[in-house]
Write a structure and sequence with these properties.
Layout: E1 6-7, H1 25-30, E2 35-38, H2 40-43, H3 48-56, E3 63-67, H4 82-101, E4 105-111, H5 120-133, E5 138-141, H6 153-163, E6 166-171, E7 193-196, H7 201-205, H8 214-218
Parallel strand pairs: 1-2, 2-3, 3-4, 4-5, 5-6, 6-7
């Protein structure tokens, strides 16, 4: 079974009419697609009321790919004490319960930043993440080429297979160390995630500008 969906439901104006209200967009989105990537969870661990609202607004068979909180993927600096990191994971896992109870959680996506390279320390942290998430399906996406260079490619795939990670395959501009090549390898017998970022190298590397929506530039690309 192949599920096709969008990242978020608020930024795709061509999907909605001029009179579609913001609160109606998820419902409208879910009438076109069977799945969506929830990225609000990346910026903040979502309160249960939000999860319950989103579940009510979508069909029974609808699914969510939920992005891991940015503190869990080292996009932001946090207190590195074991208590703080453990508490962050526990709060995030608690926020997933409504989706699990409604059978609407497809997977959690751990997308790591360009500076998260292939080192022993980072491999150890990936093992920790997987252990903390328990039986929850988790996908892994890198943004640093070192994981898939000639030296590490096979061992990276083997690591994901051995530790139960779902491979998040990215089609994205090849813009140096902070981007990864397409590696068409499934590491989980049940699920694979493919994220289509486009191939707009200029937009991918353009600095964020407060005067424009950076997504409009970064992902400006049309697939055939």
């Amino acid at each position: 079974m192949i599920y096709i969906g969008l990242t978020g439901w608020g930024d795709h104006d061509s999907l909605y009419t001029d009179v579609t209200k913001a609160r109606e967009k998820l419902s409208e989105n879910s009438s076109h697609f069977p799945i969506v990537e929830l990225d609000a969870s990346f910026y903040a661990i979502q309160p249960l009321r939000n999860a319950l609202k989103w579940i009510r607004e979508t069909p029974e068979t609808f699914r969510f790919v939920i992005k891991a909180y940015q503190g869990m993927t080292k996009h932001i600096r946090t207190d590195n004490s074991k208590e703080t990191i453990s508490g962050m994971f526990q709060a995030f896992i608690e926020s997933l319960k409504p989706f699990q109870d409604a059978d609407k959680l497809s997977m959690v996506l751990f997308q790591f930043p360009p500076w998260f390279d292939c080192t022993r320390e980072n491999v150890t942290y990936l093992r920790y993440c997987k252990k903390m998430m328990g039986d929850i399906p988790v996908a892994l996406e890198f943004r640093n080429q070192s994981w898939f260079n000639d030296k590490h490619r096979d061992s990276t795939i083997a690591f994901m297979e051995e530790n139960g990670w779902i491979h998040s395959i990215a089609d994205e501009p090849q813009a140096g160390e902070g981007s990864i090549p397409i590696v068409l390898e499934a590491t989980n017998s049940d699920l694979t995630l493919i994220r289509m970022h486009g191939r707009n190298v200029h937009g991918w590397t353009k600095p964020k500008n407060a005067d424009t929506d950076w997504r409009d530039v970064r992902y400006l690309y049309k697939y055939n």
